[in-house]
Amino acid sequence: MGYEFDAAVAVSRTGAGCYRAELDAGWLVGAALNGGYLLSVVGNAVRHELADAGHGDPYTASAYYLSAATPGPATVQVEVRRSGRGSSTVAATLSQDVDGRPQDRLTVLATYGDLSTISGEVRTTARPPGLPAPEECLLTSRAAPEFRSFVPMVDRFAMALDPACAGWAHGRPGGNTWIQGWFRLADDRPVDSLALLTVVDTLPPVTMEMGLPGWAPTLELTVHVRATPAPGLLRIRHETRNFAGGFFEEDCEVWDSADRLVAQSRQLALQPRG
Amino acid sequence: MGYEFDAAVAVSRTGAGCYRAELDAGWLVGAALNGGYLLSVVGNAVRHELADAGHGDPYTASAYYLSAATPGPATVQVEVRRSGRGSSTVAATLSQDVDGRPQDRLTVLATYGDLSTISGEVRTTARPPGLPAPEECLLTSRAAPEFRSFVPMVDRFAMALDPACAGWAHGRPGGNTWIQGWFRLADDRPVDSLALLTVVDTLPPVTMEMGLPGWAPTLELTVHVRATPAPGLLRIRHETRNFAGGFFEEDCEVWDSADRLVAQSRQLALQPRG
User: Which chain B residues have a beta carbon less than 8 Å from that of A210?
Assistant: First the structure.
């Protein structure tokens, strides 16, 4: 039996640089599939394309979202733009047929390499988020049934939110500009570099806790994968510092059980409309 | 008389989505042209391509650097990937002929719109960097002649660095993981959304102040342009928080004279080798 995450991001090669995927309804958030999940599907096609080069880990990936993706068949086209000894850079696009015509859902630039081959001095000044113990946090799997049927994604992982930033879940948004919690994938699948592309986009939008519910479409998401996580629970936190001019950014950090900052991401989203 | 920045990023259309540029030796840093400058050249071609759509401002742009660009002729190919009422998304690549064969220098995804049409609630929690008065700062134009001939870029703008993070300029790196200062373009050209793509990449690498001189090649640079700057000096600051695993990120903020955070950027770079 494989892990459900691997089935959800599975791709099969159908031609030169061309892959087929079956997008999983389990990653729906309302009517659209989660952007981080879609990036992992594209990322998996890229991993296959670069397997012979030995470049299986995204170092950096940038997704630009073009239209909302829906469950069902999809095509990923990967074009290698630079082949180096230590890393490769690709352009890739995921599309779906709509009334017989291909419609692009997201387009991606990414640089891949092999995280196990690199090392270097560590002078990290960032500190992991301070979180209460998991048992003192709020499990998203305990959310109301109507929420869970609107956001099936919450059953793809175990997430325990810091109660200090989860007032929104009880109808009392705290006004905080950040949300943080503990994370692991369903059936304890180890989080590798490919899954990190999804993990950074799993927290509820900070706008929930700011008292601004409603859809906040992502224009762009860039993820830097900095290390393969050690086994164990992850701590994830995201925050906006510049909610202005019609947009807001969300910066996400993922910390592993060895206190390493294993992924950093930033996305630009439209402010929810009242 | 036009501004020198406009001459340096000028493009002329030569065919469908195809533009010609002349890359300016004035933006050299050592043997290679500055990555932010190159992004503005690409960004200017995109601006021309989207002129009819009325989408003249980058909201977000992500550049992946493929090989070092040199002064002289270059070609920018722009492909519109999504045309919307409010914004357009493009893919663009800058290449140069090497021994008669085109070699890609950087490839870019970007979403453009019109900053003057958008507004929204402001709940920014970020605060501008605390800087001494410009006259108490260190002008990079006063650097030693051998430095200025190695980095001709420093004569393209007036930059006054906070002495608290400029010890490296006197051979005594302070160990700080950030550098900040005041900024304006040469001949006082107003900084618009296009120029911001360059501004975010003009500060000396934080690794200088960390006591790690040497070349730190950028893999990826993403810029979010959040507003057109008000007239006057800009304050710019960048910082790394996760120097580890062979890489470091640099987060840059640009603040205008009206205390607005007008641009945020992040880049991923390789740690300098010894």
Answer: 123
